[in-house]
Amino acid sequence: MNGAVLVAVAAAIGNLLQGWDNATIAGAVLYIKKEFELESEPTLEGLIVAMSLIGATLMTTCSGGIADWLGRRPMLIISSVLYFVSGLVMMWSPNVYILLVARLLDGFGIGLAVTLVPLYISETAPPEIRGLLNTLPQFTGSGGMFLSYCMVFGMSLMNSPSWRLMLGVLSLPSLLYFVLTIFYLPESPRWLVSKGRMLEAKQVLQRLRGRENVSGEMALLVEGLGVGGETSLEEYIMCPANELGDDQQPIAERDTIRLYGPQGGVSWVARPVTGQSTLGLASRQGSIANQNVPLMDPLVTLFGSVHEKLPETGSMRSMLFPHFGSMFSIAGQQPKNEEWDEESLAREEGEDYLSDAAAADSDDNLHSPLISRQTTSLEKDMARPAAHGSILSMRHDSLTQGDTCEPVDSTGIGGGWQLAWKWTEREGQDGEKEGGFKRIYLHQEGVPGSRRGSLVFIPGGDVPVDGEFIQAAALVSQPALYSKDLMNQHPVGPAMAHPSETSVKGPSWNDLFEPGVKHALVVGVGIQILQQFSGINGVLYYTPQILEQAGVGILLSNLGISSASASLLISAVTTLLMLPCVAVAMRFMDIAGRRSLLLSTIPVLIATLIILVIGGLVNMGDVANAAISTVSVVVYFCCFVMGFGPIPNILCAEIFPTRVRGTCIAICALTFWIGDIIVTYSLPVMLNSIGLSGVFGMYAVVCVISWFFVFLKVPETKGMPLEVITEFFSVGAKQAAASKSN
Fold first, then answer.
1. Which residues of 19-34 are buried (b: 16+ CB within 10 A; e: fewer)?
2. How many CB atoms lie within 10 A of CB 273?
């Protein structure tokens, strides 16, 4: 996973530049207003600081749609260019108006970075460490603030500090960011798949994962192109082909999926259990308690039931099929080693088969599809297909090349999930057989008693005991690219369109009104609003005053440091305290989870804000008040950057489908910036009207509301593939709608 880690670190430099700029302008404005004589024009002074905020807000309104159109990487390149140019213009600024233009350009760069870096990291990171990597922007942002405060503090000790040099230094790290985005960062593989550029996506995935066989994840990315759709929750029994007894309610052979291993003699089957899935019912362990909670979103219970069923070992790898191959087929058939895909058939027969888009991405090394070719009763009646334009079957690397056996999760898609397909047949209205494919996300249930005997047979490992089986929950729906219309053309294999065909349509505004997407937008927009009104801006505003009361200012003045320099040094120390706390959050983001961190840190925020309210109303002496306030501020900062700081952006980058992810995350980011503007400009007004204690009291009330919102509405997404998360949102939204109607 080193490739994904290094790519995430490089992308997070965009947030380092944002933190750098925020800290630099806070120090530079002290000298800007002196040179341009702005003491009598506070509006213009405030505009210099706020212009980047305005630019970020304007850019965010269109960044998501453009990123869905042009790609993630080009937008990050543009962001680095805007940072670089704005730094040069700020260093040159001959008057305040040129400076305002430079600050606007800087805001454009900030808006792109803050919106797209979390999205980019989410789309490139493996599910197991996605939370850790997506906390990097918070870490680099705080690190950039610390480095910038140190630089500005050092310059403030000079006889004639230059604000132009302070602001112009931004061009140096932005130049590094530009070089990395051009020569190192790849395009998001999910975006490439959404545009039908399959070969490029495969090459990027191989680089990010550090292995050749990425067929399972490629199939997953294709499945992520769907928005909405009918999905059912089912329960499957996984066992050796000859082990399923009468007590597991055997059903028709045609409903059984045979799972082939890479070595001879390894054969397991999956059969659906009749009745409703325990995943849907969430009838075991803690989720049953959540179902009795008033106003609890069914989505939260649904996600929670999955995490309760993780294997007790805590391993993020699936214990279900740790070494199974990539062939999923109808029971009763043996896997065929023949190379089969419609492109190969067309090439052998000399047919003018491929469309331009498909031809550009053809790959002679993509053999032995994930859905192995089976002779069904429907196919027997099919004629040899003529040229079908760009009708393609799903094609993926075989697990084994020649005589070499490589034990790789070729259908493992992360977080203990596996991806499979099943061919179904039924009698049509005219008596003819109709068929189609069902896509299945399988997940082992880790509840004690759900399996008997040893966990699973690992080729070359322990010998299985008699009677072993494993329960697996399943999300079953039609494949994202399945086309009923193509069945009328009698294609050989699954009737699926190539992603390049769907990319022509692009995202639609109607997709935003799909129940799952609307549900996700409620969660994303809601948590962004609550984050902004949770008090971070007020505490940042009040921190220098708190530390001044604690005697830090007097101590620094005795050392010969001016009040302006002392304020910068205090801010540097404050941001330094954030770094180890963000590091702790990175460690636990994929272990405890996003929801758990929020539910455990928000109460601490409430407690510290209440203490600050009491400290402002009750006079316990200057020393006591200063000490208590200082400790409260430090604890508030530490807990905020562990939970409410990074997690809203992480969640917003995880919960939307690929086709509309850029647009939806832009909506959430726009909410963030508008909330930031409201809080920033309302703070002085509120201080004058209700005082500092009243402001902190309001923030405490918002944090209480935030805790209940997270508890009732925000699901746990740790360790789950993005495509599975969006599928769950679709199912959960429909369950919520059904419960309301009932």
1. bbbbbbbbbbbbbbbe
2. 17
Q: How many CA atoms lie within 13 A of 683 on its CB side?
A: 19
Using the predicted structure, report yes or no on whether residue 322 has a pLDDT greater than 90.
Answer: no
pLDDT of residue 429: 60
Q: Do domains 1-185 and 509-737 have the same CATH topology?
A: yes
**Token pair of 474, please?**
């399943």
Pairing of strands 400-401, 328-330: unpaired
- pLDDT value of residue 474: 79
- Closest by CA to 12, choosing from 184, 140, 172, 182, is 140
Indicate whether 268 pLDDT > 60: yes
Check whether 108 has a pLDDT greater than 70. Answer: yes
Domain ranges of the chain: 1-185, 229-241+436-444+469-479, 509-737
Q: Of 186, 174, 28, nearest to 109 (Cα)?
A: 174
Return the CATH fold of 509-737: Growth Hormone; Chain: A; (1.20.1250)
Tokens 């419609």 identify what position? 342
Q: Which of 104, 98, 88, 65 is nearest to 178 (CA)?
A: 88
Following DSSP, what letter does each residue of 428-451 receive, concatenated? -TTS-EEEEEEEEEEEE---TTSE
Place of tokens 């545009």: 195
505 vs 729, more confident: 729
Separation between Cα atoms, residue 531 and residue 707, nearest integer Å: 11
Q: What is the CATH number of domain 1-185?
A: 1.20.1250.20
Which 3 state secondary structure label does DSSP give 617? helix
Contact between 652 and 149 (Cβ < 8 Å): no
Scored b (16 or more CB within 10 A) or e, 490-511 reads bbbbbbbbbbbbbbeeebeeeb
Handedness of CA 444, 445, 447, 451 (dihedral sign): negative
Q: Where are the strands (E) in 338-468, listed by range? A: 391-392, 400-401, 404-405, 412-414, 417-427, 433-444, 451-452
Q: How many whole angstroms separate alpha carbon 318 and alpha carbon 169? A: 48
Amino acid (one-letter) located at 387:
A
Contact 620, 632 (CB under 8 A): no
Is the pLDDT at 650 greater than 50? The verdict is: yes
Residue 222: which of 475, 395, 410 has the closest Cα? 395
Predicted structure pTM score = 0.80
Write the burial class of residue 649 (CB in 10 Å: 0-12 exposed, 13-18 middle, 19+ buried).
Answer: buried
Query: Which segments of 643-721 does DSSP mark as H helices, in order?
Result: 647-652, 661-713
- Check residue 610 and give its pLDDT: 94
> For residue 535, how far is the Cα from the chain centroid?
25
3-state secondary structure of 341: coil
Summarize the chain as % helix, strand, coil (round to 5): 60, 10, 30
Q: What's the angle, vertex CA 309, arms to CA 304 and CA 312, rounded to 5?
A: 125
pLDDT attached to residue 506: 57
Residue 502 has which token pair? Answer: 């769907």
Buried b / exposed e along 105-116 (16+ C-beta atoms within 10 A): bbbbbbbbbbbb
CB under 8 Å to 703, separation ≥6 — which residues?
Answer: 534, 535, 602, 605, 606, 609
Q: Is 240 left (phi over 0), alpha (psi -120 to 50) or beta?
A: beta
Name the residue among 561, 505, 523, 454 with its Cα closest to residue 712.
Answer: 523
